[in-house]
UniProtKB/TrEMBL annotation:
Gene3D superfamilies: 3.30.465.10, CO dehydrogenase flavoprotein, C-terminal domain, Uridine Diphospho-n-acetylenolpyruvylglucosamine Reductase, domain 2. PROSITE patterns: FAD_PCMH. The keyword Oxidoreductase applies. The keyword Calcium does not apply. It holds the Pfam family CO_deh_flav_C. Keywords: FAD, Flavoprotein, Oxidoreductase. InterPro entries: CO_DH_flav_C, CO_DH_flav_C_dom_sf, Diverse_Substr_Oxidored, FAD-bd_PCMH, FAD-bd_PCMH-like_sf, FAD-bd_PCMH_sub1, FAD-bd_PCMH_sub2, Mopterin_DH_FAD-bd. Residues 1-177 form the FAD-binding PCMH-type domain. This is Xanthine dehydrogenase family protein subunit M.
Amino acid sequence: MTPFDFLVPYSLDEALELLDDEDPNVRPVGGGTAVMLMMKAGVLSPTKLIGLHCIGDRYSDIAQSSDGTLEVGGLTTLAELENSLIVMQRWPLLHRTLKTLSNVRVRNVATVGGNLAHADPHMDLPPVLSAMNASVIIAGRKGFREVHADSLCTGYYETVVAKDELIVGVRVPVQRQYGHYAKITTRAAHDWPALGLAVTFDTPNNIIKDASIVVGAATDRPIRLVQTELALNGVDLSNFERIQVISEKAADEIEVMGDTHGTADYKRQLLRVTLRRVILAASKRQVQ
């Protein structure tokens, strides 16, 4: 392993000053789970790592704001978010998703900000946060900006976060009436998925409203199925035949990509079959 410097700033401003937009070999580190694997694999040889664990407790807080929004610090570990009582009670979709994200050893160390910044298309959290209409808070030397979770990832391991910026928080609105995330793996439940599919919606008078459908793992980034959402809105939840027809057409809306977890044709068929099941599963998981 190539020698590198490990620097520990004691404030957000100090951390931002240490980052360099023109030097890809300077990397911030939250939990370090992804960075260390990349270094061991030889695909990353940093000259400097910026440890973020001392920049302030506020960046690892979990709280509910006055308008009901869930506020999560970027340095919050996945395990802390998973085990938060307020998340269990008010954002159960998020809680259930985290229980099968990687394994407990990783969740005890990996941070929310690092997970999102890594932008692996197989990640579980980005499609779920997108379906929940969450937003991501990004800090830079010129201040803070907020981007919708839909817009965060731009491609394989690519995001809108510049090399001299940090993800410092996530905001999640009040969860919709129904929501479910399906993670289809070829091995263990906590493995990388061949398909990740997140769905949320409301159902006044049993009619689907404000549906959000986001696909992960089958594409180079989480992608919202906008046309499928439009087709689903206004459908009676008990109209299984109509839901089936809409689900079978969903795969035609996006370019599905194959990888080591499955061919494009396999993932396309998974999407056709899984969407109907996720909608029905979501309808049985009403938020209290």
